[in-house]
Amino acid sequence: MEKQKRYEALTKERYQDIYRLAYWLCKDQHIAEDLAQETFLKAWRFFDNLNDPNAEKPWLITILRRENARRFDRKQFDFVDIDECAIQTKTYPGSDHDMAQDWLQKQMMILKPKYREPLLLSLVAGLNHDEIAQALRLNHNTVATRLFRARNQLIAQQGNH
User: Fold this and answer.
1) Would the pTM of this model clear 0.85, i.e. be above it?
2) Fold of 96-160
3) Which CATH code for domain 2-74?
């Protein structure tokens, strides 16, 4: 019963962080819910492997990242003739904050994955350098360097905007 109580506490404490990161990765509420659920199901299966309570968040993020990658491995894409599709652009009124958020997300997607992932884990998941290093299996200095470079690239892109 001790395992179940620890797991329930982990789920209660970390679910919102995992869901928020899942949503950022897929931009779809239902897929994000599925990813979060799969993450916690897998966490339950391997909960005995988690020995360090300080490693909970990076451990869950690692599971989430793998589940998200599996989503693309399983997905079968339908090919459509581009000429048969009518492309329509819609604009929606939004606040300055929404526009800034959209701009930031687009700019982050332009970054190379080696810079985007640590920045995403820092900004969206709220991980510190050591937790990011653990989640990505990098050393602390590499994480610090990549975060520095990612932020500088975003600042440079903002200047060009």
Assistant:
1) no
2) Arc Repressor Mutant, subunit A (1.10.10)
3) 1.10.1740.10
CA 38 vs CA 45, 47, 129, 157: distances in Å: 11, 14, 26, 35
Alpha-carbon span 87 to 61, nearest angstrom: 36
Q: Where exactly does CATH 1.10.1740.10 map onto the chain?
A: 2-74
3-state secondary structure 5-44: HHHHHHHHHHHHHHHHHHHHHHCCHHHHHHHHHHHHHHHH
Q: What is the dihedral of CA 110, 111, 113, 117, to 10 degrees?
A: -110
What does the pLDDT look like over 61-101, one tens digit per residue?
A: 889 988 988 877 655 444 544 444 444 434 444 566 667 77
